[in-house]
């Protein structure tokens, strides 16, 4: 166990490097999204949420391709993509975009 | 000039690669924040803007230590830190300093 901990601490992508702390900071987006799920949809910024959805989609690919490869970052952006898409659906529903169209005959 | 364009095109972080396009679209976050400057401070989300600001600062460093080094990613994160901190300052000013003004106004009233 102590050797595993040492290996982690001294890894080229370990906590002594920003390869670790960059993704950790990014988890802040996921946590922020989770916290904001408790707020009413009117508080959601459509601009920011849409930008986040595009951003995390692209950065999943980036995390895979960058050297050293960053699995922590990949997991982070996959999680963020899920959270932000959910927030986007709440925002869209509140704006009325997802309402079913009433049949013409009933109007 | 042609050789410079070719060098750019074939760069390991050039437009043929995700290393170019991921940071380029990350500008969308700063642009979204700038668009939200026009909205009232009440709608700003503390957790989201703290995440934007902290991520911007830490990623400015991360951009410099990855392979390939990524100046596009560096600049977008500096901008992100800037817009995040500005949004936070608007919200904090509203929440913690305008109350004093309100109190003063109510005392005067």
TrEMBL record, chain A:
How does the protein associate with the membrane? Multi-pass membrane protein
* Subcellular locations according to the entry: Mitochondrion inner membrane
Q: Name one GO biological process term.
A: pyruvate import into mitochondria
Alphabetical keyword list: Membrane, Mitochondrion, Mitochondrion inner membrane, Transmembrane, Transmembrane helix, Transport
GO cellular component terms attached to this protein's record? mitochondrial inner membrane
Q: Which GO terms describe its molecular function?
A: pyruvate transmembrane transporter activity
Does Transport show up as a keyword for this record? yes
Q: Which Pfam families match?
A: MPC (PF03650)
| Main location group | mitochondrion
KW Protein transport (keyword) present: no
The UniProt entry's sequence similarity note says: Belongs to the mitochondrial pyruvate carrier (MPC) (TC 2.A.105) family.
Q: What does this protein do?
A: Mediates the uptake of pyruvate into mitochondria.
- Its name, as the record gives it, is Mitochondrial pyruvate carrier
What is the organism field in this record? Answer: Oryza sativa subsp. japonica
TrEMBL record, chain B:
Localisation per UniProt entry? Mitochondrion inner membrane
Keywords, alphabetical: Membrane, Mitochondrion, Mitochondrion inner membrane, Transmembrane, Transmembrane helix, Transport
**Gene Ontology biological process terms, A to Z:** pyruvate import into mitochondria
Does the entry feature the keyword Transport, yes or no?
yes
Q: How does it sit in the membrane?
A: Multi-pass membrane protein
GO cellular component terms, alphabetically, are: mitochondrial inner membrane
Give the InterPro entries listed for this entry: MPC
Enumerate the Pfam families for this protein.
MPC
Give the UniProt family note: Belongs to the mitochondrial pyruvate carrier (MPC) (TC 2.A.105) family.
Read off the PANTHER family from this record.
Answer: UPF0041 BRAIN PROTEIN 44-RELATED
Function of this protein? Mediates the uptake of pyruvate into mitochondria.
Q: What is this protein called?
A: Mitochondrial pyruvate carrier
Q: Which organism is it from?
A: Oryza sativa subsp. japonica (Rice)
């Amino acid at each position: 166990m102590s050797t595993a901990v040492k290996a982690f601490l001294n890894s080229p992508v370990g906590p002594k490097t920003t390869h670790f702390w960059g993704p950790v900071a990014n988890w802040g987006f996921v946590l922020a999204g989770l916290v904001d799920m408790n707020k009413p949809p009117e508080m959601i910024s459509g601009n920011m949420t849409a930008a986040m959805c595009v951003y995390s989609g692209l950065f999943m690919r980036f995390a895979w391709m960058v050297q050293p490869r960053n699995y922590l970052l990949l997991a982070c952006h996959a999680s963020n993509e899920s959270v932000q898409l959910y927030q986007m659906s709440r925002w869209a529903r509140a704006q009325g975009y997802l309402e079913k169209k009433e049949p013409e005959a009933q109007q | 000039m042609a050789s410079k364009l070719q060098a750019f095109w074939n760069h390991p972080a050039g437009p043929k690669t995700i290393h170019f396009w991921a940071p380029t679209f990350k500008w969308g976050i700063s642009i979204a924040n700038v668009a939200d400057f026009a909205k009232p401070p009440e709608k700003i989300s503390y957790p989201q803007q703290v995440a934007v600001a902290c991520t911007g600062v830490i990623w400015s460093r991360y951009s410099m230590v990855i392979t390939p080094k990524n100046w596009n990613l560096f600049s977008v994160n500096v901008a992100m830190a800037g817009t995040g901190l500005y949004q936070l300052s608007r919200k904090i000013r509203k929440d913690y300093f305008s109350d004093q003004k309100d109190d003063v106004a109510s005392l005067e009233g």
